[in-house]
Write a structure and sequence with these properties.
The protein is an alpha/beta fold. The chain has helices at 36-50, 85-97, 131-142, 147-154, 195-218, 238-249, 262-272, and strands at 3-9, 13-19, 25-32, 58-64, 80-82, 101-107, 111-117, 120-127, 164-165, 182-184, 225-229, 252-254. It folds into two domains: 3-89 and 262-272, ATPase, nucleotide binding domain (Nucleotidyltransferase, domain 5), CATH 3.30.420.40; 97-258, 2-Layer Sandwich (Nucleotidyltransferase, domain 5), CATH 3.30.420. Strands 3-2-1-4-5 form a five-stranded mixed beta sheet, sandwiched between helices. The chain is globular.
């Protein structure tokens, strides 16, 4: 069938997508990573079962992500190559948003910022604030070790019970600073703050930090569009926070469908579009 698999082997999750010989996205799957090698093979097995495929249907495997470094040979005898993670982030974001240029923000265990144009990808840098931060702080502060448990808690939380807002520290309005703007994350923790308040405070802090870093990235650039990808971009609170930051700084945030699988998609798309070497291994 000539299927191309794109596999993003991350620090905590492995994500896999498949494209047909006509460059149509067949589907996607993700597997929690106990270790990168096991999760990669598990991802392939789960994907084949889910979409009723066999190894004979696969023409090419394209790896990316931090775990790709563990693989140097063809997998299952199928021609395998590796794509730089930042190239995959860039082209995955452009593909999902159907645009020729944008900043792509990959919100994974940490956060990476990539400037992407149709024929050029530039890694701008990153931040250690990301999904790992969310899980680490939740483990310490809430004894919660699963993101779904944290999200369930956060549904009933109030960030103003832990965050210091601009209106808490000024006596008159300042046009450039909305009164409900966060002045300090966790800077005003109330004695009656609940675990739910702490949960939403953690989420608020991480998404606001990523959004503000994006605003700073855009200051001296003509590109004002940000494609948000990765698991954290799909949190229920993300769109509202990003929209507020975008309105304040004159930039646009887009969270595309399949944002979680953007890097895996970018790996496959890079190969199919001839951006990377088509030679084996």
């Amino acid at each position: 069938m000539g299927i191309v698999l794109g596999i993003d082997i991350g620090g905590s999750m492995t994500k896999i997508v498949g494209f047909s010989q006509h460059n149509n996205l067949l589907g996607e799957q993700q597997v929690k990573a106990t270790d990168q090698i096991t999760s990669m093979y598990g991802a392939i097995g789960n994907f084949l079962r889910k979409y009723h495929l066999s190894l004979n249907d696969i023409d090419k495997i394209v790896l990316t992500g931090v775990g790709a470094s563990f693989f140097d040979d063809d997998i299952y005898g199928i021609s395998t190559l590796k794509v730089d993670e930042f190239i995959a982030i860039g082209y995955g974001g452009l593909y999902l948003a159907q645009t020729d240029e944008a900043f792509i923000v990959s919100m994974g265990t940490g956060t990476a910022f990539v400037r992407a144009e149709k024929n050029h990808i530039t890694h701008l840098g990153g931040s250690g604030v990301g999904g790992g931060t969310l899980l680490g702080l939740s483990s310490i502060m809430l004894n919660k070790h699963d993101i779904d448990a944290v999200l369930d808690l956060a549904e009933n939380g109030y960030a103003e019970k832990v965050d210091l807002l601009v209106k808490d520290i000024i006596s008159r309005d300042i046009p450039s600073l909305p009164p409900n703007l966060t002045a300090s994350n966790f800077g005003n923790v109330k004695s009656n703050a609940s675990e739910a308040d702490i949960a939403i405070g953690i989420i608020n802090m991480i998404i606001q930090t990523v959004g503000m870093l994006a605003a700073f990235v855009s200051k001296n650039d003509t590109i004002k569009c940000f494609i948000m990808t990765g698991t954290l971009s799909t949190l229920p609170q993300a769109k509202e926070i990003f929209d507020a930051i975008g309105e304040m700084h004159g930039i646009k945030f887009i969270i595309p469908y399949n944002a979680v699988f953007a890097t895996a998609i970018g790996a496959a798309v890079s190969y199919m579009n001839g951006v990377v070497d088509r030679s084996p291994g």
